[in-house]
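Database export, one record per block. Field names are fixed; values are copied verbatim from the stored entry.
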Amino acid sequence: MAYTNIELVRKHLQESVRSEGKVENHKIKLDGVDAVVLPHAGLIASSERVKGKEQVVPARESVVLYDEPKSLSKSELLPDSVVAAKDSSLTEIYAENVDFVVDYTSGTITRIADGNLESGQSVTIWYYYFTLYSKDEDYLISYQNGEVTRIEDGKIADGQVVWIDYEIESGLFADDVITNAIIEASTQLDDRIDSSAVDDATSVLTIAETYLTVSILTQIRALEIIQSSALSASSRAGLSSQLLEISNRYRQEYDDIIKPFLKTGSRLSGPTRST
């Protein structure tokens, strides 16, 4: 029998691990009103930004660059879409990350002191920018299941490609995933403990089973992150290591709790001397 429950496990998950990280500019195509499944489930509520490219030609404007960031007229720029030139003739083009840097989210451009742009110089900028869409007007989203659905009467056209940013929350798992982990933890616990001690240790075993379930779930999530294509290699390594560390800690606490209740055959014994 299971000692723990979904609510108790979820509480420990939410307290143990917060945001796993941020996914940026994941491209999806929204056809009809069919839900599109994202690479992750368990998203942080309201962390998403659904964006589309609706321009046919790039925006163009002239700005004067100094050593501090200069805001363009639009933010949420398309990655790698910025072109900077001395003037509209495009006879002299400057190089990104050599002569200037761009913050694509905030829509700012900054001169690099060692580059070819002088402080106070006027440059002409071309760029594409995203249109941001509104939840419950243009799209629906299930944070728990990681699904996005186009709203038929919204601004997103049928078959349109959009980009989505979102943050992942380790503490959120679908109920069926938690239920399966509880069943697995309960089976492992029943195999190891002495049934005669159960009646006097129900509350303790509830804690132990909860810890083992959390350990199983965080290990599952760590493996999912390792296999994810939506995160960078460094993000995958860091996040999976964090989750495996949490998994190991909870499993160690589980092992310590159940030691007094182990079956005789489950207790570890020291080495014996051969004669």
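Remark 1: The helical segments are 6-16, 175-192, 202-226, 233-258.
Remark 2: The chain has four helices and 14 strands.
End of record.
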